[in-house]
């Protein structure tokens, strides 16, 4: 599985911000205004980022040899969750940037300024989620084959035929043919 590229995340953020800005401007032209962003959104995004980081830290500890065992399925799920978190953070960040852009011209009006601040904080929380997702993806990255400096060769599976032939030698001491 390939790592999530920062370029893809930036493209998603910009695309959602542009589409959201157009949508919100159209709604406001019809007299529909969005309510302010509640602080619970910020808390939920940060809690999600914390959970993703905690799960990724367990994988990192295993890779460094500090944790004796880790289920491979759990590590794979952590990787998928990290990828989803980085993309969700970029998409949410785009949505909240769009809200900030819509209210930007009206910052002199107190409720609009409060909306801009709340959307800005939510956009920053979304950025934290994106960065945590990328960091945890890095935690889940396997070391290159043959690199015994991290984990003592974990994950290297030797074929059974090679194990069986290991002890056999020919008459002259050379390995016997298979």
From TrEMBL:
<dbReference type="InterPro" id="IPR021517">
    <property type="entry name" value="DUF3180"/>
</dbReference>
<protein>
    <submittedName>
        <fullName>DUF3180 domain-containing protein</fullName>
    </submittedName>
</protein>
<feature type="transmembrane region" description="Helical">
    <location>
        <begin position="80"/>
        <end position="104"/>
    </location>
</feature>
<keyword id="KW-0472">Membrane</keyword>
<keyword id="KW-0812">Transmembrane</keyword>
<feature type="transmembrane region" description="Helical">
    <location>
        <begin position="39"/>
        <end position="59"/>
    </location>
</feature>
<keyword id="KW-1133">Transmembrane helix</keyword>
<feature type="transmembrane region" description="Helical">
    <location>
        <begin position="116"/>
        <end position="136"/>
    </location>
</feature>
<dbReference type="Pfam" id="PF11377">
    <property type="entry name" value="DUF3180"/>
</dbReference>
<feature type="compositionally biased region" description="Basic and acidic residues">
    <location>
        <begin position="160"/>
        <end position="171"/>
    </location>
</feature>
<feature type="region of interest" description="Disordered">
    <location>
        <begin position="143"/>
        <end position="178"/>
    </location>
</feature>
